[in-house]
Amino acid sequence: MKTLTITRPDDWHLHVRTGAVLQTVMPHTARRFARAIIMPNLKPPVTTVAQALVYREEILQAVPTGLDFSPLMTLYLTGSTTADEIKKAAESEHIHAFKLYPAGATTNSDSGVADIKAVYPLFAAMERHDIPLLIHGEVTDDACDIFDRERVFIDAYLSDITRNFPALRVVLEHVTTTEAVQFVQDADANIAATITPQHLLFNRNAILAGGIKPHYYCLPIIKRESHRLALVAAATSGNPKFFLGTDSAPHLTSLKETACGCAGCYSAHAALELYAEVFEGANALDKLEGFASFYGADFYRLPRNSGTISLEKTVWKVPSAYGEDNLSITPLKANEELCWKLG
Ligand code: NCD
Ligand code: ZN
């Protein structure tokens, strides 16, 4: 049997929610990853160091005994975030970044930033305290076609942010377009990007052809094939600006399979396996370790993990759902076969 062994990886963009959902999803991530950057878009959002430390404890309680997993916390940036909170966050060993959601861009982003220019003084504070800014890079303008929202954001906001704050470390989260890949490649070394499994595996036909498939609906929305190919090329290039961030975003099946379904794909159940499939398909399995286990840690200035994880080339079938009783979460590739299995 073929075995793939790499240094233990980290997930640099993850939603785990709270309560029963957290209990259901946390074991999946903790079995595969040593650390994960935890998104703060709870209801209400995690906006202060004090709230993040409470949330961190809840996450740690949900990690199965015997697994060694560290949540890396982030704070949700709002129009009322203070420079003092940024200083406190930068000084906390548990807080690793601020997350910018343009107001209304995605799930639980209502408290996000409505006027990006108005928070420039906060970007200046992040630059000064050297704490990274993670960006959901989509404009929220109703008049902008949903497939263009990332590209337009880069021209309308991102270029200006990186020009004005040249030392600010920025992660353009879950990139989905050729233009985003190009922007990050051309930018300075302090600008990086995460890439999800769904944007590497699928194009928009997965959502819309042969019937509407809500479990492939996430934001930024999956684009056409030419963009997917650019993302695969970036992820498998060995360029340290691109690293693993699943954006695994659990929603109850009932809230996805409905007239107005939530955005988010659940991938934590097989995250590394899905990336392995992509890298193998691109003949680049030798590039997976850098993408999954080295470049993110280097960007966040954290030590690389010790220890390894192994995947075996064995076919297995993804269950139709995870979670007990009333809680059902439909995973990516539900009822389908995967070719890599956790050892
Ligand atoms: C995420 C969620 O559900 O929290 N949804 C998504 O479609 N990716 C939010 C986000 O990262 O945009
Ligand atoms: Zn996300």
Can you summarize this structure?
With 343 residues, the chain is of the alpha/beta class. It has 12 helices and 11 strands.
Strand content: 15-25%
Strand order of the largest sheet: 2-3-4-5-6-7-8-9
| SSE arrangement, N to C | EEHEHEHEHEHEHEHHHEHHHEE
Distance N to C terminus: 11 Å
What small molecules are bound in this structure? N-carbamoyl-L-aspartate, zinc ion
Helix content: 25-40%
Rg result: 19 Å
Mean pLDDT: 97
**How many helical stretches?**
12
Unreliable spans: none
Number of domains: 1
Overall, the morphology is globular
- Corresponding CATH superfamily: Metal-dependent hydrolases
Task: Give a structural overview.
Helices cover about 35% and strands about 15% of the residues. The radius of gyration is 19 Å and the shape is globular. Helix 3 packs parallel to helix 4. The strands form 2 sheets. The protein has an 8-stranded parallel β-sheet. It has a 3-stranded antiparallel β-sheet with strand order 1-10-11. It has one domain: TIM Barrel, CATH 3.20.20.140. It has about 350 residues and is of the alpha/beta class. The site of zinc ion has 5 residues, from loops.
Would you spell out the secondary-structure blueprint of this structure?
Blueprint: E1 3-7, E2 10-14, H1 19-32, E3 35-38, H2 49-61, E4 70-76, H3 83-91, E5 95-100, H4 120-129, E6 133-135, H5 149-164, E7 170-172, H6 178-186, E8 191-195, H7 197-201, H8 205-208, H9 225-235, E9 242-244, H10 253-256, H11 271-281, H12 288-299, E10 308-317, E11 337-342
The protein binds N-carbamoyl-L-aspartate and zinc ion.
Zinc ion (ZN) binds next to loops.
